[in-house]
Specification:
Length: about 425
């Protein structure tokens, strides 16, 4: 960790600990990159489902079910983690679950639709739950004025993790294809490689990251008490009007982002005619530009302000979608893909940092659970609408991606009216009350 990053750390936090926190982003990014974005998604449509007209919709529906499960459980898990100071324990459980079910995807072959859908739902559920928990550590290790760049370091390292996992898979796939092996042989091996990388790269997180929260005073907190606290948070949400509006804004623009993540490989193969090797290479390059976007934009966000920075990102997303829609040759599509990378890295980091900026201390896991609820709601809304449009239009992926751009437009409109300074003051005041209580 460099000196600029170290200067933004919270009291008592060492650079090694921030590195170990960021290493979780490195570890879990292989799952999203290989399973959700680059390899298994296209494998499911082309091989498992045999290019059936409903295949894309079935893939998005499986993801929607997993995100719905996360929506139902994320706020509860977050509130329970706050009450018991158990973020790290729950993170270990969700990590193990994702690793096991990702490895099990190696068993999926042609026609194994039920098995594939079941494993996608389970692995993605554990992945998404862990993503919420690791994010809740951010405000504990970074000062408020440095949330953007510390979050950017995490996302940037995360994209490098995705790059490493995908690069390893590319080497294996290239050799397997050269030897004449079909996708039903080399794709299952990439699932085992992804699970292995997740397991090994996440070890620093569990060795060095500290659980700084303390259990809430009083007797052991029951599930009923946690639910009551969550309901109280929702009931008093008007106090956090800026955070509430941003979560709605985030739901819409993340719908567009989650569509790109879930369907990039499918679009590349179905609309542009890319092979598996071409697609992996494309996503590799996108991960490089995404890492650059996350690292650089974190600093811009701390300097220019959260709202202005996110507004710039959303305008860039709209332009990027239009480029992808217009692309009929590989050159323009590669340009659009690299724009996706820059936008993807910066927007993911910026949103997480702003939620941390607007959340009161002492209830961080609970509020990041609400963040997870918003993101997972968008993960249902975006990909499912894309899948429905492509199915109803007879496989018109260009129309589906164009309509996806509308989510970024709505997000940009909702961004107006959010006052980050006012929201921060509310969070600080309520945080002091929570700690005093």
């Amino acid at each position: 960790m460099t000196a600029p990053a170290s200067s933004g750390l919270a009291a008592g936090v060492r650079p090694r600990e921030v590195w170990s926190w960021a290493m979780y982003d490195f570890a879990n990014s292989g799952y999203t990159t290989v399973v959700i974005t680059a390899v298994f998604s296209a494998y499911f449509v082309a091989e498992v489902a045999g290019d059936a007209p409903w295949a894309t919709f079935a893939w998005t529906a499986a993801l929607a079910v997993s995100y719905a499960l996360i929506m139902l459980t994320a706020p509860l898990l977050g509130a329970w983690a706050d009450a018991h100071a158990a973020k790290k324990r729950l993170l270990a459980a969700t990590t193990l679950g994702c690793i096991i079910f990702t490895a099990a995807m190696a068993l999926v072959g042609r026609g194994d639709i039920t098995l594939a859908i079941t494993l996608v739902i389970l692995s993605n559920f554990f992945f998404g739950s862990g993503e919420n928990l690791i994010a809740a550590f951010l405000p504990e290790i970074a000062r408020g004025e440095a949330l953007g760049r510390i979050s950017g370091w995490g996302w940037g390292l995360g994209y490098l993790g995705g790059l490493a996992a995908l690069g390893l898979c590319l080497v294996y796939v290239t050799n397997a294809q050269a030897a004449g092996a079909p996708a039903t042989v080399f794709v299952p091996v990439t699932m085992l490689l992804t699970a292995m990388i997740f397991a090994l790269a996440s070890l620093p997180t569990f060795l060095f990251l500290r659980e700084r929260a303390l259990p809430q005073t009083g007797a052991r907190v029951s599930i009923g008490a946690v639910f009551a606290g969550l309901l109280e948070t929702l009931r008093t949400a008007h106090r956090y009007r800026d955070l509430r509006r941003f979560l709605i804004c985030l739901t819409f623009y993340q719908a567009g982002i989650q569509t790109v993540i879930a369907l990039a490989a499918i679009y590349a193969q179905q609309a542009m005619g890319f092979t598996t090797r071409d697609t992996i290479l494309l996503i590799l390059v996108v991960n490089v530009t995404a890492a650059i976007g996350a690292l650089l934009f974190g600093y811009l966000q701390d300097r220019a302000g959260h709202i202005r920075s996110i507004g710039i990102i959303l305008v860039a997303w709209i332009v990027t979608v239009l480029l992808a829609w217009r692309a009929t040759d590989a050159a323009l599509f590669w340009l659009a893909a690299n724009c996706v990378g820059l936008c993807l890295g910066s927007s993911q980091s910026a949103g997480r940092a702003l939620v941390g900026y607007l959340s009161p201390s002492g209830r961080l896991a609970e509020f990041f659970g609400l963040w997870g609820l918003a993101v997972k709601c968008s993960s249902i809304l975006g990909p499912l609408s894309y899948g429905a449009v492509s199915w109803l239009s007879g496989g018109d992926h260009r129309l589906a991606i164009l309509l996806t751009g509308g989510y970024f437009v709505v997000g940009l409109l909702l961004l107006t009216g959010i006052d980050a300074g006012r929201g921060r003051q509310t969070a600080l005041q309520d945080g002091h009350k929570t700690l005093a209580g």
